[in-house]
Design brief:
globular; six-stranded parallel sheet; seven-stranded mixed sheet; 352 residues; Dihydrodipicolinate Reductase, domain 2; homotetramer; Rossmann fold; 2 domains
Chain lengths: 352, 352, 352, 352
């Protein structure tokens, strides 16, 4: 395919970790051409000043954000901005005919009151927001195919939802017993200089945070409720792990039918994810390590049943910055453009 | 106190990480004199060959294990051996008048059939084992004071039990809803050269193991049942964290009385641990970091209530090799000798 | 290119970290077909038992090493064996018409007495060894193109030599002043369960080893001497860094001409590596981070001059398992087959 | 000793990592009473808000800096401030009769022009500065004993100087050949939220910085010149290591007398440090690991000679925040008060 036939894509907000993954993925994607990088605090800087290791490949400069310019130049726009900013820009971009993939929380909620309640931001784009599709391909592939506006879920939600979706969809568990113990590398906190994310503080240590009140809880519950067919509340606790990348979600739930054994569940999981090239259900007795997924768009899932307690325990591992962020957005792009779902996405880790 | 008045102590099995902590603690303990280090594979070696950083302080040689010699020379013996070996030696040591603190699983079980079932070892010392006390001072301080033989609990059990003991003792939770998500640094696996514990494998990664079948489950359940007054089953899942030391237990349970709030529980925890100098219940909204406990015998506990789900979430952090192993044994020694409980034990971390 | 036109390649010794990188690279290489994996201790095992994360892509079984089978089935053979084993197998493989890329030290030495002196192995394949080419493409590209047998250099040598080659080749430094302070992640020690490579030992710590007597010294000196045109001795000290992958070589040398400034040297380095797609000489004042190279076949080089001391300091960063091992071998393969040098090799890291 | 007989000490600037070590050391020191903690940005906060793990032991509040109050209340003052601030406060404190231990660079330089040149700060306290003593007890113990004002050296200088002092003092090396390759954990960068010190950036990676121009160079050279008896220039290169604490200095130099062997040098080092309780010269063939020193005031030194190149290589390891900062200041305090030099200082690590 000639360079001129490629789809023109732009990124608004590319200075963070999600942004640099997107840049990295898009410059090697065979069907797109990265034509715009826009930002606020880093406008005017060479992108290689932010990420010197890319200097020999990326010669672009971060431009001031001008939506008219973006709309004219790009067919597709990715937004990697803090929560509450995308919803001010997306109406203009959509109006100008762009397809939009937003990596923030702005377009993930069906009920905008829930959004406003957790994110303290009033919304003026309710009609548009109602058209947004939740960008988790394994659950909403068909809707993504038809969408113009996609709210891509983040790392904790992706790992959590992929771990329990088959159970809820098939009605195999008691929904109110779901406990999700999430564990994330510190890159999930972004490229912001926060004291608690310093290596000196976060290395060789471990802590929970946002206990009983993390913002991802309502988002996880929205999709769980959709899968279960009725309102579901879950217990979600995130932890900060002394490593750069990777998320593990350990999910616990009580089985409705105590007769179900591990092999039954593996069969169900394999069937559920049969058409999902990035979900890898592990064989009997193998549990995922996060490092297997690092640098890829894969999700590894291990399933165990405790016959003593009638609980199922599901572990799912992803790279928080790829399948949990930028790779997922590219996967959504592939689907909505009608391309091969795996196009331009890394499918195998270097280990160790 | 003169050197000659000190209590003579020995260590059998001092080549591992638990052993070297014991050596380190005992050579600085003001009431004891370390007179014997015995081992099998390292017999005949200078202890400083195993741990060169101690060379300027420890000039002892590892001696072949000869129980007669140990019994003659020592008033108190610590055993830091793999499971299943202590029970072959302890009868002789007790007979020779030694007090014994065992760091393995051999003397932790009230029901030796449970032990044999999980550890695949038949026992011939049932009468003696029946006299052993579970060496968790915060729960069994009075019995420890009178004991000759103490089975000291390990790291996961200590962190887990201290997190839920007040809840079970006071009947505040539904016992069968207890889920304990344990997270440990890799030193818990000991100084054995296993591939999965190599830095190259375990660093920058995260995994669960022993899901639904870890040996510590029956031990945790034994004490939980004792506290609750009836048989209790819990869900316990250990995880390997990419750090050297430290354990965090995140424990979930459903409250019997949904009217209980965080302040109520903090009051209850503070009262429960009022006489326990090594348990530090954190104020409202503060959650423990494992690093706060590293290098000390402390246990930091944070308590949270989710009023939406009626669950309590308790986080407890310890140093797996001190409060979770060697320091706990020294704490037991202090109690059974009638000394200050904190004697010779580090009480404050260097941070970060 | 059809599957049937692909070059048939095999790997002997694929259970280690170098081996699994090779497997990972070769199954995605567009011009080769991996048809054989052979090993000794793991013969008969599914390769996915060794590396479960590859289970969905690699269904091969490790076969017993039978050189007749290998020779019949493979056009090209990679050897990833401990030092001293390749030289027993290569004569047969060459005789059977295979091209051979050896990752051990066996075919890196021009003077086999030096090899025998350091590796304690007598050699019976002197004629064949004399035909071997040193597989560092940036220095020996033309010879590699014509070779049948390539001794690929390892991680320390690659990082060290690329850092000082332009200086020695151009006669810019006093050779006997070269001090190379090498720093490597622990995966360089291989997938062997050694106590000192446990996470519990090696994490949060740092040490030198092999000081004044490391085996890579004579290998570095051989190439330095070749570049300088006369015998050169260098000071090389390796250090173990608490990370999985990556090597940094910090090289010091006294300039012959104290008038040379940084810009001069950058010009010289850029010219020297003009045709080397995997060497990236960084701009003025930018020093390499090892993480920039991790997961790629790149070498990043930073150059500094101290005008006070008349020394040049060069820092070079590579991924020890790719450019320092498996990727280098694939790069050599590409060259000797007449393919694009970068074919099938990762060229850009995911950061952070 | 009664609480009332204790020496009253204060800390100005206790919010950083050096400060919290000082607080930790001083509250357990048997001869002092910590009566004042002063700060600027954190004035008015409970100290336990900055470091919650100390909450059960430290109930002090950070006070606004008022030198009159400090002078009235304290016999001894430690200053843990950014460079350039101490020199504005110390004249007043000295005038009020306090003994002062400064942890910044302000009082480390004999030649204040050198200070001003590197730190961009004009000085108005030249007479006072001329009375300051360089607080490295192993080299200046006698002067410290008589001092009122001590400029305590930091981590890189301490590790570097202890590694080469015996060589320079005895004239064993060619001074201009000294190359010091320094490697530090990231806590050396302080508790400041800088992007490059985030775990996400600094973990699993390695880089040099300040090459050919680091501020510690002139400080190291000042003491080296003092030891050698003439002006000496050294090559010093710091590196950022992915760990929290610890520094290793690897020092290279050419021996004047190529006949010297390792045993000779070990004898010389042992003699040189005979009266230094915190320096531990390791036996033949043992090289220091930084972790051996972590949490202690120790310096471990290993010495090697390369008979091929006539170079000596010395490795020294310290805890950058204790022997490299706060512990060193307490060691100086002990000396100037006439107490046992080791009082209140940790002397043995917990390993691993």
């Amino acid at each position: 395919m000639g360079e001129s036939d490629r789809v023109k894509v732009g990124i608004i907000g590319a200075s963070g970790y999600g942004g640099v993954q997107l840049v990295r993925l898009l410059i090697d994607h065979p069907q797109v051409e990265l034509v715009y990088i826009g930002g606020d605090s880093s406008a005017g800087k060479a992108y290689a000043d932010l990420y010197p290791h890319l200097g020999h490949r990326v010669e672009m400069t971060v431009e001031k954000i001008n939506l008219d310019v973006v709309g004219d130049r790009c067919d597709v726009v990715f937004l990697g901005l803090p929560n509450g900013l995308a919803c001010e820009m997306v109406p203009t971009l959509i109006e100008k005919g762009c397809k939009v993939l937003d990596l923030s929380a702005d377009y993930r909620f069906e009920n905008l009151d829930t959004y406003t309640n957790w994110y303290k931001k009033e919304r003026r784009d309710r009609d548009l927001a109602a058209t947004a599709v939740y960008g988790l391909p394994e659950l909403y592939r068909d809707s993504i195919r038809e969408a113009n506006l996609i709210g891509c879920p983040g790392c904790y939600c992706t790992a959590s939802l992929l771990s329990v979706a088959p159970l809820l969809k098939q009605g195999l568990i008691v929904p109110e017993t779901v406990v999700i113990d999430g564990k994330s590398g510190t890159s999930g906190g972004g490229r912001q200089a926060k004291t608690n994310l310093l290596l000196a503080e976060a290395d060789s240590s471990l802590t929970a945070y946002g206990v009983a009140g993390h913002r991802h809880t309502p988002e996880i519950e929205q999709v769980c409720s959709d899968l279960a067919g009725h309102d579901v509340m879950v217990q979600f606790t995130p932890h900060l792990i002394p490593m750069v990348r990777g998320i593990l979600a350990t999910s616990y739930a009580t089985l409705r039918d105590p007769g179900l054994v591990r092999d039954d569940l593996l069969t169900i999981y394999n069937a559920f994810y049969r058409s999902s090239p990035f979900v890898n259900v592990l064989p009997n007795g193998v549990y995922p390590q996060t490092k297997w997924a690092v640098g890829t768009n894969l999700c590894y899932i291990g399933v165990e049943v405790d016959v003593r307690t009638d609980r199922v325990i599901v572990m799912s591992a992803i790279d928080n910055l790829i399948k949990g962020q930028s790779g997922q957005a590219v996967q959504c792009l592939n689907i909505l453009m009608g391309w091969e779902e795996t196009l331009g996405l890394p499918q195998l880790a270097f280990y160790p």
